[in-house]
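Homework help thread (please don't just give me the answer)

Our assignment gives two proteins as sequence + structure token strings and asks us to describe the second one. The first is just a warm-up. Here they are:
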Amino acid sequence: ACLCDFGGTLEADGATWQDRFFALYEKHGLHPDREVFRQAFYAADDSLTEGGAIAGAGLQETLETQGERLWKALGLRDDRDRVRAIAADFLGGMKWYVERNRPLLLSLSGCYDLGIVSNFYGNLDKVFEDLGIRDLFPCIIDSSRVGVLKPDARIFQAALDRMGVRPE
């Protein structure tokens, strides 16, 4: 078995979502203070797990909702078109990395049972469907669904239990 992360890994070569959103804000002519942006990002990100805010949402809706909440947390004037353009750029980048990584994932899936362990928003299954890689990962553990965040060992144990694999 092989457990992977999602959220800056399979779809971004190690760049965090915060860093990617920051770069896209700059690309779209906005230049927020980095520390102010960091705090706003975490506030927006945390709000996505509250009360199942985006449970069942697809990838595009997830990115747009996160973008809108980040925009609001930064105190920017309403500009839905710009928020959507930033989300679209973010999504385009994700899809590019996933497609580039698809041959590797296919090769790995031929040798290993693949699983995902991610601190996410409760909709990771739908996100993987939208990216066209759900079938490569028989086990997807979304922290919002199991109630435990990485690095707590229980989230990894949940994946191992679901896969029928011992940690050794």
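The one we have to describe:
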Amino acid sequence: METITKSLEKRGLTVVAKKHYQAWPQANVERFYGEHKGRFFYPRLVHYMGSGPITAVILKGPKAISAWRELIGPTHLQKARQTTDCLRGQFAISDTKNSFHGSDSIASARYEI
């Protein structure tokens, strides 16, 4: 978490809320990623996100959504590994198990929060 915290600070982002889950309930995971239901990766994504501990955070800062999405980097592992200072490049296991989520808009963030 120290690497992530330092990366957030470097971009002027602050964690305003944080919640740890030992395991995220399956129904919550399915609802959260419901927009992807029917896509080929959905079952793997839902399984992975409910398989172990996660930390959910709410960030604040200048252009927080775009700054966070830039920091986490591309969803595709090979692209992420080619991106400088990209968190997914450092922590992802695969395209589906890419370790991070980032809301794509203010509306999405409000829903996801």
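TA reply:
I won't write it for you, but here's a hint about the kind of observation we're looking for: The chain has a mean pLDDT of 93.
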